[in-house]
Amino acid sequence: MKRILKIVFRIILLLIIAAVIFFFWASSSTLDEKEYSKLITNQYENVIDNDSIFSIVTYNIGYLSGMTNNRPVPKPKELFDNNLEKVLLETKKVNPDIIAFQEIDYKASRSYDVNQQNEIAKLGFNFVAEAVNWDETYVPFPYWPPTMHFGKVVSGQSIISKYPLKEHQRIVLERVADAPFYRDALYIERLAQIVKVTLNGQDVVLINVHLEAFDKQTRVNQFNAVLEIFNKYKTQYPTILLGDFNSRARDKDAIIRKLFSMDDVGNAAFKTDNITNTFDSKNPSERIDYIFYTKNSIEYISGKVLTAFGEASDHLPVEMSFKLK
Length: 325
What we know:
Elements: H1 2-26, E1 37-41, E2 54-60, H2 77-94, E3 98-105, H3 116-121, E4 127-139, E5 151-161, E6 165-172, H4 181-186, E7 191-199, E8 202-210, H5 216-234, E9 239-244, H6 257-260, E10 265-267, E11 289-294, E12 298-305, E13 318-324
Parallel strand pairs: 2-3, 8-9
Antiparallel strand pairs: 1-4, 2-13, 3-5, 4-5, 6-7, 7-8, 9-11, 10-11, 12-13
């Protein structure tokens, strides 16, 4: 009996040791931290219609997984190839000057190691700001079955532009305080990505965000930190705050309503009496993606939710055309 107990104990001990080794291996980074924030200059052919009217898009691209995002279902390479083709086609039609992405993969097993940022930038976006918020050797999610695990993930938020970018900042926002240690170690960092774009010789501040989706108090705290950043810049520069806020426009206690109530801040493609939804793309029922701008320095021309992008992501993009005052 003692011998059997010893064998069982050793097996349990080995399993524990294996789990600890796996955890530290899986949560280890693949990049040097210096690579988490960078400005890239490309040399692609492009045509810039410099007529003083500019356009900007925010798009949670959901790593091009469409409506399979975060779901334990097979994701063949064909799905990602088709969704990339769709995004490239629709982006050419819209022809924006700037795009701010959330959930875009730079090199990840889950999306077949394609640098999605670079593929879209080839359309003529020669200035790129890249902010990594997820760098893990192995992500065991979705939890079951193991064949659906993400594996290696390098992902983040990107701003790609036809106009020069400078002074890029990657600001890590508050994490979920009571998250289990294993989730915290393997979970994405929520970011405020800040960069200046030069339009007709004038600096415009862009703040690209992706706020907490599941923990409300953390989302509120992150929003307040972002609002403080926005308020700092909006008194000095034309400023655009955009991204996936994960805050529902129709909820009476939604933190996003703070921005709705600010008289000096506009909201693109948004009417409180007729809200256009951005999530999910298959059956849009919620508005959680926004483009806000400073009214005193930016003249709003037009805006819309880009429904033609379909189910390339589980979100729909939002577009705004504007002038500088």
